[in-house]
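A.,

Following up on our hallway conversation. Structure tokens first:
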């Protein structure tokens, strides 16, 4: 079986999210408001089958840089709302069977949100790195 550019396919899939404000990159999160990135975490074989196929979990972080506020305005709650919309979008894609397609030799099962969004870091320029982990579950056939 030929090698599949999984990250490229995953990026193409996440870029159809209508709530994104900028193009999502792989392994690079810029410091502009709305800049997003996919950060692969781990690809784990969950189960091996007698025919040589494997059930795989592909875990990744979806990160975004947003401005943060140190006042009582709605900026911070708006950011969390935005990220929850991203997660709702993932749930909708999953329900509709609109999953990344790795091509022949792969069956895609689901994409899962693994936790609520969180603020991972605040930078001096009042920008914050928000993120949430997600998982793509697929079967790699032999």
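Then the amino acids I'd put at each of the 142 positions:
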């Amino acid at each position: 079986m030929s090698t599949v550019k999984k990250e490229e396919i995953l990026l193409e899939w996440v870029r159809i999210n209508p709530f994104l404000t900028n193009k999502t990159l792989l392994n690079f999160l810029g410091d502009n408001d709305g800049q997003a990135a996919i950060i692969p975490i781990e690809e784990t074989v969950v189960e091996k089958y007698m025919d040589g196929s494997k059930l795989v979990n592909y875990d990744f972080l979806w990160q975004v840089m947003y401005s943060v506020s140190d006042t009582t305005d709605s900026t911070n709650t708006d950011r969390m709302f935005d990220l929850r919309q991203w997660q709702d979008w993932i749930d909708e894609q999953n329900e509709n069977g609109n999953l990344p397609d790795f091509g022949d030799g792969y069956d895609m099962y689901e994409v899962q949100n693994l936790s609520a969004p969180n603020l991972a870091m605040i930078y001096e320029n009042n920008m914050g790195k928000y993120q949430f982990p997600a998982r793509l579950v697929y079967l790699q056939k032999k």
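Residues 75-95 form the longest helix (21 residues). Curious whether your intuition agrees with the design.

B.
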